[in-house]
Design brief:
The structure holds two protein chains of two kinds. Chain A is an alpha+beta fold. Chain A folds into two domains: 187 residues, no CATH class; 40 residues, no CATH class. Chain A has eleven helices and four strands; from the N terminus they run H-H-E-E-E-H-H-H-E-H-H-H-H-H-H. In chain A, a hairpin with a 2-residue loop joins strand 1 and strand 2. In chain A, helix 2 packs across helix 6 and helix 3 crosses helix 8. In chain B, the strands form nine sheets. Chain B has a seven-stranded parallel β-sheet with strand order 26-27-25-28-29-24-30. The longest helix of chain B has 22 residues. The relative contact order of chain B is 0.06. The chains are: A alpha+beta, B alpha/beta. Chains A and B meet through helix 4, helix 8, helix 9, helix 10 and helix 11 of A and strand 3, helix 3, helix 4, strand 6 and helix 5 of B.
Chain lengths: 314, 1061
Amino acid sequence: MARRRKSYYSDYWPRYEATRPIEVEDGIKAKSKRGKFVENWWADRWIEALKPLMDSGRLSRGRSYARRGQVMEIDVEPGHISARVQGSRRRPYKVQIMLKPLDDRQWDTVFDALAEQAIFAAQLLNGEMPAEVDQVFEAVKVPLFPAARGDLKTDCSCPDWANPCKHIAAVYYLLGERFDEDPFLLFELRGRSKDEIVAALRERRIQGVEAADEVPYAPDDAPGGVIEAVETAGLEQCLDRYWTLGPEVEEVVLNITAPKVDMALLKRLGVPELQGISAQGFWAQMERVYDGVTERALEIAFEDASAAEEAQGE
Amino acid sequence: MLMEENHQSKIIPLSLVLHGSWSDDGFFVWGEASRSEVAEPAPKPRGRRPRVPPHPHAAPPERLREALETLAPSGDWGDVPAATRTILLPSTAGGPHLPPWLVPDAAADADTEATDGEAELHPSLWKVKGLAPDILTALDLLVALPLHGTGARWWGTDLRYWGLAAKLGLEFLAHHKVLPGLEESEGQYRAVWLPVMDDPDDRARLRALAQAMPPVCRALFTTDDAQADQAPAPHMLLDGFIKQVTDRAVRDWGRSRLDRRRKPPQGVAGAWWSALWDEDGEIAVPLAQRRELARLFESWQQWMGQLRGAAETGFRLCFRLEPPEVDPETERVVSPDWVLRYMLQASDDPSLLVPAEQVWSARGGTLRTLNRKFEGAQERLLAGLGSAARLFPPIVTSLRTARPQACRLSVNEAYAFLREVGPLLEGSGFGVLVPPWWNKPGARLGVRAKLKAEASIVGQGILNMNALVAFDWELALGDEPLSREEFQRLAALKMPLVRVRGQWVMLQPEEIEAAIAFWEKKRQQDQATLRDALGMALGAEQEVGGLPLHSVQASGWLDDLLKQLQAGDRLQELPAPEDFVGTLRPYQTRGYSWLAFLRKWGLGACLADDMGLGKTIQAIALLLREREGAQDGLPPALVVCPTSVVGNWKREINRFAPRLRVMVHHGSDRARGKDFAASAQTHDVVISTYGLVRRDVDDMKQVAWSDVILDEAQNIKNPHAKQTQAVRGLEAANRIALTGTPVENRLSELWSIMQFLNPGFLGSQTGFRQAFALPIERYQDKDTTERLKGLVEPFILRRLKTDSTIIQDLPEKQEMKVYCDLTSEQATLYEAVVKESLERVASEEEDIQRRGVVLGALMRLKQVCNHPAQFLGDGSALPGRSGKLDRLGEMLEEALSVGDRALVFTQFAEMGHMLRAHLQSLFGVEVLFLHGGTPQKQRDRMVARFQRGRFQQDHDAPIFILSLKAGGTGLNLTAANHVFHFDRWWNPAVENQATDRAFRIGQTRDVQVHKFICAGTLEERIDALIESKKALAESVVGAGESWLTELSTDELRDVMQLRRD
């Protein structure tokens, strides 16, 4: 293949090619494409902890590395994260992030405090970081989130003199995104896995009784709203009952009324947090919409199109 | 009325069956029409035959529009575009297999396989033209369709199926089960309204609905090269349909509700929001915002992700609300707090509950109880609590402890839990247990009525329904009255839940307001007509002034009356009238006593016993009893019946109550004007027909009848018909309706009959339709059905031949003669044939020839008795020209209406063909016909089909016509419980053999045998002859009919001569 001629203008501009990273085919791409990187406060806290350690240029380059998928892999172990990030050199850089793990005694204190109130476990198991978690960790004088410069040890094999560099930042951002979904991961960094935490808390609930074999906790994942598949014969096998309604229609008992609880779904889910949507306005409009839909549905359901005609008689 | 037969039979005489189904291309309506309806025969394809031929019986689009405009006048069908689809249908070599009633049965092609309905079927593609209405137009039509019922015949099961699906969609919409959302397809996003069907009951109903889908609903394709195995799965079709309905409906109905003054959302979310209200839902964003749109989609997905149904892990968190503890001695509440207790509940056994304290003490996180293992029980409990706390903040407080077991609620929180939070938690997949009193009427403020019936109303024993009855109104909790002071004390507490006389009661602010208003308005005293009071006592009203009506109490004679009304036929039995000839069966005595009881109170009664139980006899006994008891004689009673049974009535009265003087008001020489009144006064009973009541209504109104008895009262099912109005206009002290159809299931008919019996009792027709007919017909609403039943049951006595108390009074095989009158056309033909035949017999001297002439004459007279069209052999129209045919139709209607199956024997193959065509179009069912020309293989199939019975609801063939010779022996047809002998074979042995097809080993029900006889004709004479010699008959008359030829000419004249009386 003939080499393409360079554009006439290309020499007029500084050449960025040298510092542009090599593209990675299936790197870990951040879900966030722009704006705010994470959703929840605890992930926010994580990200915020990095900010005072870096200049804003590196930080934002790190963020765009994370979004472009330059991070190739992340490996989380208690107290230690190792990752590979593709930079402008052929060989990916090695990134290490270390957090000081708690020792066993410290963990015991933390677990004791966590076990005192069921709300901690309830929220964690429900995918939320309890708001008062800081107080629990204060007791052991080790914060859950990195606070001071010394809490976080980082290292990268890139030639940048600054530490943390953009590669570290990229990994750091991606970790924030993971915490968003799984608050247990933060604990893991401090040295205890989710299973260990669940077991430890359980142990404390059943005082004096030793916890036996581990039962992994599986969160529900039953999706709502899809009609279950039913077994069907091919049409050619149904010729003798082609027009027949199945007896199951008797199970379909209808109840066309106004709802028992208004807007139950919205009350369950809350207003979606979508940028540009005001919760109050959305709620007010939906209230009107639901109202109107119910009214019209009941009207159609019980309207007697033939009533007028009937009254006229024959 | 949309669904009622009476209207429609006039509009569309079963020449069109409408179909429709959903596919990815939208809704499509088409129709099958009988040949005469398809205006032009499909043009012969020129050149090469098209790959998919046009459906030869598809109704043209303009015919569909016309039909739909009549049947569903609310839709704008004129504008609905025409469309073409390809459909896979079971077919024979002759074309798509049509419903039998659309196929005219010409004797010529009756023997071909195609029309006997038993030919081998194969799937084959056809092009159909039809209409493609938009989904909301289709919805209007679909919602109005009945699922079952006799009026359902013009609607294919496919349309009715989608009707049910549409109603379910409507329920989701009414219940706010829709959320705004996005749909992604290849990087493109659309704004959509999505139905949320995560409730276990919704899921079960949708699964059932998917399973019940008739195969034809999956057979619609847009392309010509469709294959049977490409048919979409039912759940996919249903899913698409429900989604489309909900999406279009919210767009259309919600848009106008938006508050225009509010600032619309901005940015990408704003584009999404506005696309939710557009026709196509396309989200218009500049290219630069595509990423933001993708992010919006993700956020939305997360939001929706909270909708997790109850996990399939075997158990779930369950909340039990417990009222405050009450000191049993002082009846004082110990602490004002309510308790919400946490437990685990097994998903498959809701009664298996494990309290939280037990869960906390489980070893190793695995809870074992009652041989069940709950793994991860503690974590499940904790996670559940964490998620529920977001919906109900009081839970949070309890989570501040290590092992929460319950939380305490204030009375207002408890009330909020009962009213709203409980259902929300249930919707989110949690178990919720509320105190049992919560759903009982005793826990609600309501109203109680006390009827104060004054003795003077009873007067001479006949009730005046317009008399006024005084009511005492009281506030009540369940059955307990609540004094004004008590109520005020409770209302002053301003608590939503209060304890009254040892039970918890909900006091909603709006109910307190209603109660105060009620008190001011009613001032405790009220009046109503006796008609309304009876209705109220029987449960017609549910609410008074916005408060539930808890109970109605009556005293004195009114209480007695109500109790007796509800007792049905368990009343005190009356002795049979003295002059009654014969014996009443025990249930007939009860029925006649019941009629007498209602008559005593001046209430109209509907005797709706099954066919064959002797409704006529019970009515005759009543007429006789009245006249025996009357001191100075009664005015005459009027019996109104179909023409076909006028003779039967007269015969029955003469037989059982010869004392009664009967006058038949029928025929062209009937008395008119003053003569009629004068003549009627000299008789006890006047028998006439519906047609004549309409015509001679002015004459009939001159007489103040003692009774008006309507036989086959379904004849007044159309409230607007002239004959109905004429009948209702007659003056009568007592009204009785007799019918063998299940009148309680045919609501328009029920109203019309009740309006005749007890005018005004069921309210206006429009009101009745809104309150009862529509919810029951469209939605099979159980509560409404029960309420209506309670209201009309006292006035309807319906006993089935299968009832255990009836069956013991009946013989296993019940033979009845059915006397039919000749129409005047038949009578004229009959006399002409008699005259001509006798002349020929007299002139024949040769024995053999004379014999031939006699047999020929007999044959022709039988043909005349059957039907003029059979005698003339001219293929002329059938209805209204033969007494037998009309009677057969009436009796079969009754039989089919209760799910019975019938054999019809005739000795004439041509009559069989005529019957088949007639009955098919009359009832819209396939009628089997077995005759000498039917090949063995088909015979077997027909027998199997008939015996298979009703499990095949839509392809059922409940009527089997057999030629006496071909079908009289060897077959086993025990599925039938009626045997009709349409014409007689003058040999009892042959008839009995035929009857035994149904009455054989394997028969589990009683069999009724109906032998049709034309009154006054040779049929009646010969029948009498056989009866008189029954013992001899079999030996004397042998197997044939030849013994008749041995009669002398005078004897023959005597046998043949038509006797009119």
